[in-house]
Specification:
The chain has a six-stranded mixed beta sheet, sandwiched between helices. It has helices spanning 28-38, 51-55, 124-133, 151-166, 169-188, and strands at residues 2-6, 41-45, 65-70, 86-92, 107-109, 141-144, 192-194, 200-202. The radius of gyration is 21 Å and the shape is globular. By secondary structure, the chain is an alpha/beta fold. The longest helix has 20 residues, at 169-188. A hairpin with a 5-residue loop joins strand 7 (192-194) and strand 8 (200-202). It starts with a strand and ends with a strand. It has two domains: 2-166, Vaccinia Virus protein VP39 (Rossmann fold), CATH 3.40.50; 169-202, no CATH class. It is built from five helices and eight strands, in the order E-H-E-H-E-E-E-H-E-H-H-E-E.
Length: 204
Amino acid sequence: MKIAYADPPYIGYSRYYKDDPNCAEVDHNELMAMMCREYDAWALSCYTNSLKTILGYPSCPEDVRIGAWIKPFCSWKPNQRIVYAWEPVIFWNPRQKVGKEVSVRDWISANMTMEKGLMGAKPIKVCYWLFEVLGAEAGDIFTDLYPGTGIVTRAWENWNNQMSVKNLPMFESALTQHAPDAAKAAAQKGVLRKNRSGKRAGVA
């Protein structure tokens, strides 16, 4: 599966990236058209004030979903009564999976990054959420179209390696093999649990 992630300068904000020649004003209509042509699934980060405009472009598929990166800690600006504390993420054609164990919320809560060298850099937690929302799997081809700090690509490499390990048959057997040892260690430390009667008892 070929997956693209785009986090271009938000519409009208390319001036904040004037030192980067790759961050000129972006034609979001053409960007979505290109991603639909060349990729099986994609996600696009944007700004709340531009969301209506982007959804109205001819190239925006009818079946996109809107996710949200919610920021408990965010930038507070003078004379701004209603604070911008979330960012929309438009995603299209995620891999279809069935079962509670593969369910993922359409929002993620994570503080904004600080001192990453580039305005708008995404936290690792948000990157991992993006991969989960898109239904990414180990071995998929992932392209960060606007790499910036490179954090998304590095997060993908780490996540992809972890998923590869989890897919190995020996991974599950290794967990099972060490489970009794973990239970004994917990008992030795006096870890308590509630039994069915509601009384507290030591771990057996």
